[in-house]
């Protein structure tokens, strides 16, 4: 297929390659070209930029990214999708590199290089694990420039939540301690084939300056303990972290408070004091 012949509709691609959606692989495909273009605009102009996409499936989002002028590196676990994606690669010569494999297992940095935007309609079963891995990379600024990710709406709300709300927890702290995280827009369940049970939303995350003297490992330890027992007072939930109660005292944080009342900056301050101990 050459670049001057229009691409066939995605429904035709799915039918021709027999890509019946697999629940086990979290397959809910997006076919609406306008919505896909809208997602591809979230990271900003992509002409000449590198994009890493997890789970291209039949290639709807991939098309939109390639059409916006990006060089795309895409990792797909379902080998049934590869012939359809190879056709797409032919249509956009030199712009698409396909990797067959598990996004959880590949060395992304080695495959993609630095400065890539990550854009993905994530498989729900590995979505949060991948997000945490991208957020908690040791080196900062990270190897990626921005994250544009589709999540179930409830997970998206947990990522951008502020203190004192029900959705606020470990994920909000990990997403916000050295990033700006916002919901770009909601996506109705009917936009997917097959439609999932719940609504979705696209989250946009950009790295900002990291606070000095705080390691990702220490922050994870503190938030893990604090929110592991979120209904308990900090004096109980943080007991398992050596030095944490002394850190609360040094910072003037009342130990009878519960984790969900602490701002992101409070967790950062606790992790910093502990890092110095
Ligand atoms: N990008 C397509 C779209 O928007 O229509 C498909 C999105 S679908 C929600 C998730 C895709 O991720 C599927 O194609 C699925 O096969 C793939 N996938 C699931 N687990 C994966 C993994 N561990 N590594 C790479 N791809 C995976």
Secondary-structure map with pairings?
Elements: H1 10-16, E1 29-30, H2 33-41, E2 50-54, H3 60-67, E3 71-76, H4 82-91, E4 96-100, H5 108-112, E5 116-121, H6 124-135, E6 144-152, H7 153-160, H8 170-176, E7 179-187, E8 192-193, E9 200-207, H9 216-228, H10 234-237, H11 244-251, H12 264-276
Parallel strand pairs: 2-3, 2-5, 3-4, 5-6
Antiparallel strand pairs: 1-8, 6-9, 7-9
Helix pairs in contact: 2-3, 9-12, 11-12
Bound molecules: S-adenosylmethionine (SAM).
The site of S-adenosylmethionine has 23 residues, from strand 1, helix 3 and strand 3.
Properties at a glance:
277 residues, alpha/beta, Helicase, Ruva Protein, domain 3, 2 domains, two-stranded antiparallel ribbon, elongated, binds S-adenosylmethionine
Describe this structure in words.
This protein has twelve helices and nine strands. With 277 residues, the protein is an alpha/beta fold. The protein has two domains: 10-207, Rossmann fold (3-Layer(aba) Sandwich); 216-275, rRNA adenine dimethylase, C-terminal domain (Helicase, Ruva Protein, domain 3). The strands form two sheets. It has a seven-stranded mixed β-sheet, sandwiched between helices. It has a two-stranded antiparallel ribbon with strand order 1-8. Helix 2 packs across helix 3 (60-67), helix 9 crosses helix 12 and helix 11 (244-251) packs across helix 12. The mean pLDDT is 96. It binds S-adenosylmethionine.
């Amino acid at each position: 297929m050459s670049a001057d012949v229009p691409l066939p509709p995605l429904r035709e691609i799915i039918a021709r390659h027999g890509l019946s959606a697999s629940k086990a692989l979290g397959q809910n495909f997006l076919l609406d070209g306008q919505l896909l273009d809208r997602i591809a605009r979230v990271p900003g102009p992509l002409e000449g930029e590198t994009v890493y996409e997890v789970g291209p499936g039949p290639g709807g989002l991939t098309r939109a990214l390639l059409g916006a002028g990006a060089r795309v590196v895409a990792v797909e676990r379902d080998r049934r999708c590869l012939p359809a994606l190879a056709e797409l690669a032919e249509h956009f010569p030199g712009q698409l590199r396909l990797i067959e494999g598990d996004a959880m297992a590949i060395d992304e940095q080695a495959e993609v290089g630095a400065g890539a935007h990550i854009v993905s309609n994530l498989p729900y079963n590995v979505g949060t694990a991948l997000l945490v891995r991208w957020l908690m990379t040791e080196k900062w600024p990270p190897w990626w420039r921005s994250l544009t990710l589709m999540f179930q709406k409830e997970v998206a709300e947990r990522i951008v939540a502020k203190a004192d709300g029900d959705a606020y927890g470990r994920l909000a702290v990990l997403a916000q301690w050295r990033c700006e995280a916002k919901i770009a827009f909601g996506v109705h369940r009917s936009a997917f084939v097959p439609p999932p049970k719940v609504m979705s939303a696209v989250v946009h995350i950009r790295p900002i300056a990291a606070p000095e003297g705080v390691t990702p490992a220490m922050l994870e330890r503190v938030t893990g303990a604090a929110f592991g027992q979120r209904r308990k007072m900090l004096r109980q939930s943080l007991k398992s972290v050596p030095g944490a109660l002394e850190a609360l005292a040094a910072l003037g944080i009342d130990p009878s408070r519960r984790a969900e009342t602490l701002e992101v900056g409070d967790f950062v301050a606790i992790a910093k004091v502990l890092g110095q101990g």
